[in-house]
Write a structure and sequence with these properties.
Number of domains: 2
Number of helices: 6
Helix content: 40-55%
Number of strands: 0
Radius of gyration: 16 Å
Protein backbone atom coordinates (compact mmCIF):
# COMPACT_ATOMS: atom_id res chain seq x y z
CA UNK A 1 0.00 0.00 0.00
CA UNK A 2 1.40 3.43 -0.81
CA UNK A 3 0.70 5.00 2.58
CA UNK A 4 0.71 2.11 5.08
CA UNK A 5 1.52 -1.54 5.56
CA UNK A 6 0.06 -4.54 7.33
CA UNK A 7 2.01 -7.18 9.19
CA UNK A 8 0.47 -10.36 10.53
CA UNK A 9 2.76 -11.38 13.39
CA UNK A 10 2.43 -14.24 15.85
CA UNK A 11 3.79 -13.11 19.22
CA UNK A 12 5.27 -15.86 21.34
CA UNK A 13 6.57 -13.73 24.22
CA UNK A 14 4.58 -11.04 26.02
CA UNK A 15 5.70 -7.46 25.26
CA UNK A 16 7.92 -8.58 22.37
CA UNK A 17 5.77 -6.94 19.69
CA UNK A 18 6.63 -3.42 20.81
CA UNK A 19 10.36 -4.12 20.64
CA UNK A 20 10.06 -5.83 17.25
CA UNK A 21 8.01 -2.99 15.77
CA UNK A 22 10.51 -0.44 17.06
CA UNK A 23 13.37 -2.34 15.38
CA UNK A 24 11.44 -2.71 12.12
CA UNK A 25 10.41 0.94 12.02
CA UNK A 26 13.81 2.30 13.01
CA UNK A 27 15.70 0.06 10.60
CA UNK A 28 13.40 0.84 7.71
CA UNK A 29 13.49 4.57 8.40
CA UNK A 30 17.28 4.59 8.53
CA UNK A 31 17.53 2.66 5.26
CA UNK A 32 15.10 4.97 3.44
CA UNK A 33 16.71 8.10 4.86
CA UNK A 34 20.14 6.88 3.76
CA UNK A 35 18.96 5.81 0.30
CA UNK A 36 17.22 9.13 -0.36
CA UNK A 37 19.65 11.37 1.54
CA UNK A 38 16.99 12.61 3.91
CA UNK A 39 16.36 12.84 7.66
CA UNK A 40 13.40 12.59 9.98
CA UNK A 41 10.40 10.38 10.56
CA UNK A 42 8.70 8.33 7.87
CA UNK A 43 5.66 7.22 9.80
CA UNK A 44 2.94 9.29 11.35
CA UNK A 45 2.10 8.05 14.79
CA UNK A 46 2.53 4.75 16.55
CA UNK A 47 1.66 1.39 15.05
CA UNK A 48 -1.68 -0.17 15.87
CA UNK A 49 -2.09 -3.76 16.96
CA UNK A 50 -5.01 -6.12 17.31
CA UNK A 51 -5.46 -9.36 19.17
CA UNK A 52 -6.79 -12.04 16.86
CA UNK A 53 -9.73 -13.57 18.73
CA UNK A 54 -10.16 -16.82 16.78
CA UNK A 55 -9.06 -18.96 13.85
CA UNK A 56 -11.73 -17.68 11.48
CA UNK A 57 -10.64 -14.11 12.09
CA UNK A 58 -7.02 -15.09 11.45
CA UNK A 59 -7.71 -16.61 8.04
CA UNK A 60 -9.97 -13.74 6.98
CA UNK A 61 -7.39 -11.21 8.15
CA UNK A 62 -4.70 -12.91 6.09
CA UNK A 63 -6.95 -12.72 3.03
CA UNK A 64 -7.91 -9.11 3.79
CA UNK A 65 -4.24 -8.13 3.86
CA UNK A 66 -3.46 -9.99 0.64
CA UNK A 67 -6.46 -8.51 -1.19
CA UNK A 68 -5.87 -4.91 -0.09
CA UNK A 69 -3.94 -3.81 -3.23
CA UNK A 70 -6.53 -5.45 -5.51
CA UNK A 71 -9.41 -3.87 -3.60
CA UNK A 72 -7.73 -0.46 -3.86
CA UNK A 73 -7.18 -1.00 -7.61
CA UNK A 74 -3.39 -0.79 -7.38
CA UNK A 75 -3.13 -4.12 -9.25
CA UNK A 76 -5.56 -6.43 -11.04
CA UNK A 77 -4.29 -9.71 -9.57
CA UNK A 78 -2.91 -10.73 -6.18
CA UNK A 79 0.25 -12.00 -7.87
CA UNK A 80 1.04 -8.53 -9.24
CA UNK A 81 1.61 -6.79 -5.89
CA UNK A 82 5.34 -7.17 -5.28
CA UNK A 83 5.16 -6.22 -1.60
CA UNK A 84 2.73 -8.96 -0.62
CA UNK A 85 3.56 -12.30 0.94
CA UNK A 86 0.92 -13.97 -1.24
CA UNK A 87 3.51 -15.16 -3.77
CA UNK A 88 5.44 -16.75 -0.90
CA UNK A 89 2.35 -18.55 0.32
CA UNK A 90 1.63 -20.04 -3.11
CA UNK A 91 5.26 -21.12 -3.58
CA UNK A 92 6.37 -18.68 -6.29
CA UNK A 93 8.81 -16.78 -4.06
CA UNK A 94 10.59 -17.51 -0.79
CA UNK A 95 10.99 -15.49 2.38
CA UNK A 96 13.05 -17.36 4.94
CA UNK A 97 11.38 -15.69 7.93
CA UNK A 98 7.79 -16.39 6.81
CA UNK A 99 6.18 -19.31 8.64
CA UNK A 100 3.42 -20.33 6.24
CA UNK A 101 2.36 -23.22 8.48
CA UNK A 102 0.57 -20.86 10.87
CA UNK A 103 -1.93 -20.05 8.11
CA UNK A 104 -1.75 -23.31 6.15
CA UNK A 105 -2.86 -25.25 9.25
CA UNK A 106 -6.37 -24.02 8.39
CA UNK A 107 -6.35 -25.29 4.80
CA UNK A 108 -6.16 -28.93 3.73
CA UNK A 109 -4.12 -28.12 0.61
CA UNK A 110 -2.62 -25.22 -1.32
CA UNK A 111 -5.54 -25.13 -3.73
CA UNK A 112 -7.91 -24.49 -0.80
CA UNK A 113 -5.84 -21.49 0.24
CA UNK A 114 -5.84 -20.13 -3.33
CA UNK A 115 -9.61 -20.73 -3.69
CA UNK A 116 -10.19 -18.95 -0.37
CA UNK A 117 -8.61 -15.86 -1.93
CA UNK A 118 -10.00 -16.24 -5.46
CA UNK A 119 -13.60 -16.82 -4.34
CA UNK A 120 -13.70 -13.84 -2.04
CA UNK A 121 -16.98 -12.01 -1.56
CA UNK A 122 -16.81 -8.48 -0.13
CA UNK A 123 -19.12 -9.30 2.80
CA UNK A 124 -16.78 -12.09 3.95
CA UNK A 125 -14.23 -9.56 5.12
CA UNK A 126 -16.57 -6.90 6.44
CA UNK A 127 -16.12 -7.99 10.05
CA UNK A 128 -12.33 -7.88 9.63
CA UNK A 129 -12.44 -4.40 8.14
CA UNK A 130 -14.70 -3.23 10.98
CA UNK A 131 -12.33 -4.62 13.57
CA UNK A 132 -9.28 -3.12 11.84
CA UNK A 133 -10.85 0.32 11.99
CA UNK A 134 -11.49 0.12 15.74
Amino acid sequence: MPNHYHLLIKVKVDNSLEKAMQKISTGYTRAINKAYNRTGHLFEGRYRDKIIPNDEYLTHLCRYIHLNPVRDKLVNKLEDWEFSSYMNYIGKRELKFLNKDVIFNYFNKLESFIDFHDNFQENQNSFVKDLLLD
